[in-house]
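Subject: design request, 86 residues
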């Protein structure tokens, strides 16, 4: 019997409604919040999520940092959904 399994990411992005300054590229703009969940799959069907990464980055230069869950939730309250990538 052959089992086909693996992992795949599912990403949700949000755009901040508040302009902030980036000290890396010295521009002002709307930062991007990104939530990426890694799923374990069996026969290409998601079974369970085993890892979640929260990231906050500036879209012009790509500079950013990872966030904790609480920080991410606080920033998402002032953001709007952008897209969903599967």
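Subject: RE: design request

Done. Sequence follows.
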């Amino acid at each position: 019997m052959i089992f086909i399994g693996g992992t795949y990411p599912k990403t949700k992005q949000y755009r901040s409604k508040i302009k902030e300054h980036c000290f890396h590229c010295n521009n002002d703009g709307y930062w991007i919040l990104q939530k990426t969940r890694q799923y374990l799959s069996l026969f290409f069907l998601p079974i369970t999520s085993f890892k979640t990464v929260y990231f906050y980055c500036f879209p012009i230069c790509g500079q950013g940092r990872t966030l904790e869950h609480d920080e991410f939730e606080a920033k998402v309250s002032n953001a709007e959904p952008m897209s969903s990538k599967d």
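The chain has one domain: 5-85.
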